[in-house]
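Structure ticket #2291
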Amino acid sequence: MEIKYTYENKLNSLLINSVWINLVSLAGMYFSLQPLLFEKDFLVLPFYIGGSVLGKWIAMTKMDNIEFKIFSFFTKKTEKIKKK
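Resolution: structure written out below.
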């Protein structure tokens, strides 16, 4: 969304999105590092890493990637022009 809002020149939406991204990042770091550093609970590591991998897998396989479709559309056109 941050890239989309930047391209669309939507400053308010971009700033609000940045605040939410930073809050989620800080909360994730706190809840993952607090047990690890202070309580020596290493069980949090597989869940933290697994959650990250699972989130990326869902984003790449289950959600529509519009940017990739646009990129593919334009690269196909340039390949056709180069072949001529």
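Closing remark: The chain has a mean pLDDT of 79.
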